[in-house]
Amino acid sequence: MHVDFDEEVFGLRKQVRQLRNVTQEIESEAKYKNDFLNQLQMTLIDAQAGVKNNMRRLNKSIIREGSNHVMHVVLFALLCFFVVYLWSKISRR
After folding, report:
1. Distance of alpha carbon 65 from alpha carbon 71, whole angstroms
2. What is the pLDDT of residue 2?
3. How many CA atoms lie within 13 A of 14 on its CB side?
4. Residue 91 — left, alpha, or beta (φ > 0 → left; ψ -120 to 50 → alpha)?
5. Which distant-in-sequence residues (6+ apart) come within 8 Å of 70 by Cβ?
6. Rounded CA gap, 37 and 83, in Å?
7. What would the DSSP string read from start to end of 20-54?
8. Distance CA 62, CA 49 (A)
9. Residue 29: CB atoms within 10 Å
10. What is the pLDDT of residue 93?
11. Do residues 70 and 78 touch, judged by C-beta distance below 8 A?
């Protein structure tokens, strides 16, 4: 009976050790993911600031240059779309 009890205690200690190892792995993974998310958040904040700054510059440029500049950009985009459309039609033949 004493041997059975010792084996039971040994088995429980082994399981506790395994659970501790799993817990440590989960903790290190959680720390890694948290650091990654913090880094991603900082990158997004920087990107938002850059986009906001560029939008401000673009708005100032549009005001300075007038809407004629915007019309040129739109026409260029339409021309590019039309060329790609024609190219896809020709290449299918």
Report:
1. 11
2. 67
3. 6
4. alpha
5. 62
6. 42
7. HHHHHHHHHHHHHHHHHHHHHHHHHHHHHHHHHHH
8. 20
9. 10
10. 64
11. no
At 51, list the tokens.
């986009």
Q: What is the pTM of this model?
A: 0.50
Type of residue numbered 78 = L
Q: Give me the residue label for tokens 């700054």.
A: 53
pLDDT tens for each residue of the chain, 93 residues long = 667 888 888 899 999 999 999 999 999 999 999 999 999 999 999 999 999 999 998 888 777 766 677 788 889 999 999 999 998 888 876
> Which two structure tokens, joined as six digits, stand for 87?
């190219």
Name residue, tokens 């991603």: 40
